[in-house]
Amino acid sequence: MTEVVLDGVSKHYAEMVAVDRVSLRIPAGQFVALLGPSGCGKTTTLRMVAGFVDATQGRITIGGRDVTQLPPWRRNTGLVFQNYALFPHRTVAQNVGFGLQMRGIPRAEAAARVATALQRVKLQELADRLPKQLSGGQQQRVALARALVIEPDVLLLDEPLSNLDARLRLEMRTEIRALQRALELTAIFVTHDQEEAFAIADIVAVMHRGQVEQVGTPAEIYETPSTRFVAEFTGVHNLLPGRVTAPGRFETTDGLGLACTASRPLGSLLGVRPERLALLPAGATADNAVAGQVVSLAYLGAVAEAEVQLPSGPRLLARLPAHQAAVLAMGATVTLGWPASASLLLEDAHG
Amino acid sequence: MGATNPNRTGLLAVPAGLFVALFLLAPLALMFRYSLNRFAPGEMMEQALTLENYGKFLADGYYQGVLWTTLWTSGLATLICLVLGYPVAWFMARTTAPRLKSLLVIAIVVPLLMGNAVRSAAWMVVLGEKGMLAALVGALGLGERFGLLYTAPGVVIALVSVLLPFMIITLQSVLEGVSHSLEEAAMSLGASPRAAFVQVVLPLSLPGVLAGTSLCFILAMNAYATPVLVGGPQFHMMAPTVYQQVSKAMNWPFGAALAFVLMSVTLGLSIAANLLMQRRYRRWAE
Ligand SMILES: Nc1ncnc2c1ncn2[C@@H]1O[C@H](COP(=O)(O)OP(=O)(O)OP(=O)(O)O)[C@@H](O)[C@H]1O
Ligand SMILES: [Mg+2]
Fold it and tell me: What confidence score (pLDDT) does residue A18 get?
């Protein structure tokens, strides 16, 4: 169990700032997801921890040891690549044993450790196969075993699931999480998939334009996004500009009076997640209730998405249980409601 | 499969097969037939079915010496090409500067646009006793009248210059296929760059080493212009000797026999190298 600390780490490519003063403390044994859109600097950050990219500024420590100047082969990190990067000329067992061979571990001990690692990822039967004789999921398991067998101080995973199909992805992420817990490993996982990040991580760091915008548990990020970017990236589709007029009161620029929780910090945007909007039956009340006309309907299976045009101007996107949405028709007038606690107040400033 | 389910893609090989049969195998068969005929001064040859031409090669130390010279000259030139070419190919496959890379590709391909004869003639100018090399050595005060023209080292140098582009291009294409992330994976697992190279890159590039080496060796064994121009009248390799028999001595049967010996030795060595490599890496190289 090792703590990993990034202290004001930046990476500049000529004029381009790929990573901008990222500070992040990853407590020992915690699983951190770096979440953000393409090009936000996730991979660059991870590769600086692994040692493949030199930090322009800042310090990286692993278990209290400053590794900023160390080459990758002296850092004892376990790196899992998106494309697996298995050695095609080595069998599964030889792939997994590579790190032990490099460390000069005696053969007998290495063989035992390889066997244990393969057992952990349930591949003991395939030890003598070559990588090309394995499925994508099996290859990723080998890559994982290869990174785990060296007992790394930190496990680094760069979108390890993105080449797998949807079902296998779920299975593998559960497995990775279970292994990380069992071995009490510190881990950094890079993904652009919010659901994946929330499902797998103790802590999520949302990145945007090379900076970390917000760090928190999945629930914190979801319940209280601190910036407009984080809110939008995590699915807050409905954003209404306006201002707080009194504690718990928000007035939109087009004159709609809405309720929010008084204790929340002020902001010039009120956001509501589509899944927090409910269809109000006639006569029912809610903290917030707005009527409008259905302008689009999309059936997604378990849920349906309806876009509702408010008379005052804005449109709201509502994600409703499909059976409720089934009664809706295009052009119908409906009332949408949500509790004050679902109103998120945000600053408009964009990253 | 067979009759009930004919493999139609096999048909695609028919035109190429016919071409090979007509333009490569037929002349070879004809040459082989010639090599069994008897030399008859004055006419081209006398119809016969005899092995005496091959017997002459085995009995005459001179011709075996020529084969031996050809073998070691080609082997040495190929080895030097490999040693010089690998780092260049490696650099080209890994450089992140696209301009530098295209520049190198051009620098390597342009010499191929000039014929061997032209380049060998240029080496005569460089290596001769009054050439650039001699001038350089003289200027450095290392000796006078230093010439490599008409010497074995001169031929090896000229051969290397002719063959190096083939080696580099072959190696580069294979090294491009060895993903850089494999090296990174090795390094993250504790391998120094050197260890990553030895354990990962080198074994994965062996098919390229084999292809480049075979190509250069075959070309060297059959070199004509270079040994004639740079080797001069005292240095003998097989291809010029075959030519000499056919065209000067007018001994078609013996010339054909020499050609067959040259081809068999070259082919035999190349096949042996391939088998050796395949045995070692059969499982993943297929
Ligand atoms: N070697 C490089 N030279 C110049 N710019 C680079 C280099 N590597 C990355 N960048 C730039 O740095 C930024 C961050 O790249 P990075 O690969 O870290 O993004 P990412 O968050 O991993 O994106 P993705 O989700 O697409 O993988 C990008 O704008 C990229 O173009
Ligand atoms: Mg990336």
Answer: 97
